[in-house]
Structures are given as structure tokens and as C-alpha cells.
Amino acid sequence: MSQKDTSVQDQLKSYYGKRLKRSEDLQTDVACYKICTPLSKSAADAMRLIHPEVTQRYFGCGLVVPESLERCHVLDLGSGSGRDCYVLGKLVGPNGHVTGVDMTDELIQLSRNYISYHQEKFGYTETNTEFIQGYIEKLGEAGIQYNKFDVLISNCVICLCPDKKAVFAEAYRALKEGGEMYFSDMYASEPVDENLKKDSVLWGDVKYASGTYRFFKLPFGGTDERAWVTYKGTVTDHQEKLIFDSVHTFEKDKAVAVDGELALVLKISRFAPHFIVQPAEREVPIKDGPQQYCHLNPFQLANKLGSSIQQCSKTQKDGPCEDQTEVTWKCGEAKS
Fold first, then answer.
1. What distance in Å separates the CA atoms of residue 298 and residue 30, rounded to the nearest whole number?
2. Does residue 333 have a pLDDT over 60?
């Protein structure tokens, strides 16, 4: 890790660990301004059980509560106060497990303080949540086991990491085959450096988007033929339909044609018990296939979905505005 990267991390530790005491202290309210996908009933119920101090020091930018989490092993990259970990700890159930990783001393200590509290609130005989201090660019050094996790989540943290490529490489190693990386983060429409920040005219042209992505770890070169898939209606809180991403919504007992990549995802991931996958006997047309979205940046997708909004920052009422959206889509195989 370079000296510059270390300096950035030290600044972030100080900002999030010492300066910020509650989510309202953030210098911009771009975080969590608009949520396009509401919490499921189970997630909302879990959220009401979270200790107020844990919730108060939440600094994320979106929702990181994917579906079908029962019994899953989940890893939170940049777990902060532990709010998301505790919500997921309730959703995975007593036979699942959630691990949070964060580099900030104060936030790790805060999250650890309430492990027993939430165990009792959830009615579990044993805790299913742990917090590890370390860098998400170096999960192996932090003691995180590779090829272990069903789901990785992250909430507005990767954008703060100097070495993003290392984060994704480590995430890939930590996931099981068929596992999913599901993360919400912030994106700038152009690179922002210190010189740009000093120029109020140029700074005002920068736009921001919040997007939620889902990636699945598939076998290298792995794909299936196009298929018909039928949702059984068995995912908790999604009995009638499952909104999988911005392209695919699966209605119960209704066959849908999908491409080979998505067919493979639904066969080898944790969603496998919830779908019937049948090879297509002939070439079937697929409307709005996911591949066309894979290379879209969040601003293009936000415009396409009509979910782009404008909002100004708290600290600069006459300054730059932010273009924010909450969107989710699948983008295939992750590679380190």
C-alpha cells in the first residue's frame, strides 16, 4: 500500500471514527435521500430492533438487503457501526452468520458493544454476528477465509478505497462459486481531484449517482443455453413476484425466457431452490436482455429508468447539485 493510500485511509479513519457522531453530521445529504426499492417486511421488522446508537452512526447510501438470505454466510465490507450487519443477522437466522470488516477503531468497538444486545433481541441462543478490524483491500490479512461466503455486501465504502481493484479481487476470492456481491455505492460523473474542488465553476458540473449492483461469481467460461425459468413464489416477502434487477421481474408460476448467463445464476446460486429452470427447445426471443445494461454507467441507467433526481448539498446551498438514483441490475461474472 502506497504512502498516499495510507494517508487517505488515516483521514477517513479520523473523519468517520472521531468527527462524525451521527448520520446527520455528514457534510452532504446525498446518502439515503431517495430509496426506489422499499424495505421488505422482514427487513423493516429487523430494522426496528436495532439499537438506536448503532442506527445513529449509520453512514451508508442505499439498501444492501438482497433476497433469500436464510442460513447464508454474509460478509459486510466496511461494516461501520454494524447496522447493516445486525439487520442481516436477523434475516439469515440463527443458522446463518454475518461478519463485518472495518478499519475504524471507534466503529468496530461500537459495533462489538451491541453483539449481546441484538442476540437477545433476536431471541438467538448464540450470537451469529462478529466484527473484524482490517482493510477490505486485504481480507486475507484480516483473517477472512476465502471461498466461504454466500453473499458479500457493502454500503457506500468502496468509493472511499484508494485501491478499488484490490477490493474487488479480494471480494472475488472470498465468495463461494455461485455467491453474490451486492453493494450500493456513490459514483461521480468524472474524476474529482483537489484542483477540481478548488474551482467552484468546474466543481458545480460534477454529478453523483447512488447505485446498487449485484454480481455473481460464476465458473470461468461458464454459461448455459437460453432457458425458460419459472419462479415458485417461495422467497420470503416475495411470494407473488420477485424483482431481481432493473431488467427482470419474475411473477409466481409464470415462465420467463432468460439468457444463458442468468439461467446459470439461477441454477447455481442460493436462488436455485426457488426456480424451475428448463432449457429452451428452440431459440426464444428475450426482451431487454441484461447484457445491454452491463456497460451502462449509473447515470445512463438512471436516465433510462426515469429515476434521476436533483438535490443540493447541505453545506453548499448555492454549490454543486447531485444527481442521485437507486438502481439495481445484474452484470454477470466478476473477475479479479
1. 15
2. no
